[in-house]
Amino acid sequence: MITPRPHVAKTTKSLLATFSWTVLAHPSYSPDLAPTNYYLFSDMQQSLEGTDFKTKSDVENWLVSYFASKIARVLEDRYSEFAKQMADVVDKEGKYY
């Protein structure tokens, strides 16, 4: 099982302390949470095929158009599905054996 390293850089720790944020432990690596399974990424990748951006503005406009074209409910369902998978990983404490 691979466990990611927590925020250990002095500058990062200092910045986190400035905001008084509580740093949560990183979950162990989970194949259940692979980003490639996340609906948005595969759909976006397909939409980007053959696209050639010339400027930063072209990228920004494409992103605005892409998200505007998505039905909010479909994205909400996908995010909900991902959240359930994440909760399952947390419940199992990263133990799959």
From TrEMBL:
Sorted alphabetically, the keyword list is: Signal
Q: Which residues form the signal peptide?
A: 1-25
The Gene Ontology terms for molecular function here are: nucleic acid binding
InterPro entries recorded for this chain?
RNaseH_sf, Transposase-MT_Hybrid
Q: Does the keyword Iron apply?
A: no
Protein name (Swiss-Prot/TrEMBL): Histone-lysine N-methyltransferase SETMAR
| Naturally occurring in which organism (per UniProt) | Caenorhabditis japonica
